[in-house]
Write a structure and sequence with these properties.
The chain has 169 residues and is an alpha+beta fold. The longest helix has 9 residues.
């Protein structure tokens, strides 16, 4: 097995994440499931990375700050309704996994659980994070994604070292 095999597997998921979205899980005692539609993969510091942007206002942001681990699940089938619910309801008030009937099971490497359903799971440990700088953004991007009240609700980029990638039947 090559040193970048997991990176190639994770990178191959990016078109599906951009088209349909994926589910990011963080937290251990009360894990939260959040829909993501933006992601990146990279090699930095001789490590394979999955980079997930999470807005500071999201419950998942707090969980990532506390636990420093996450899993990403990219479904192989239609989960549009689940992706919609997990992208609109706050995990502060609702157990989204229970609401959506998602089966959370122990991950193979990280302490954060993974979604047990047909698809691909990426397990990550945060090794770096950085906040978006509103002043450094291109004006068109700022106007489209961070206008009005969103200027104080920028994303934090979580650089997760890819520890495992596996497909689930």
């Amino acid at each position: 097995m090559g040193k970048h095999d997991d990176l190639y597997k994770a990178a191959a998921l990016l078109p599906a994440i951009g088209d349909k979205g994926a589910l990011l899980v963080s937290g251990t005692d009360k894990p939260n499931v959040m829909t993501i539609g933006w992601a990146m993969t990279s090699v930095m510091w001789f490590k394979n990375l999955f980079i997930a942007p999470v807005r500071k206002s999201r419950h998942t942001h707090c969980l990532l700050e506390t636990h420093g681990e996450f899993t990403v699940f990219v479904p192989s089938g239609d989960m549009n309704q689940v992706l919609g619910i997990c992208g609109t309801i706050s995990g502060r008030d609702t157990d989204k996994a229970a609401t959506c009937g998602l089966d959370l099971v122990p991950s193979t490497v990280v302490q954060v659980p993974r979604i047990n359903a047909p698809g691909t799971v990426v397990e990550c440990r945060v090794i770096y994070k950085t906040d978006f700088d509103n002043d450094a953004l291109d004006d068109a991007v700022r106007m489209r994604y961070y206008s009005g009240d969103d200027t104080g609700n920028m994303h934090t980029l979580y650089f997760g070292e890819i520890l495992a990638v596996h497909e689930q039947p």
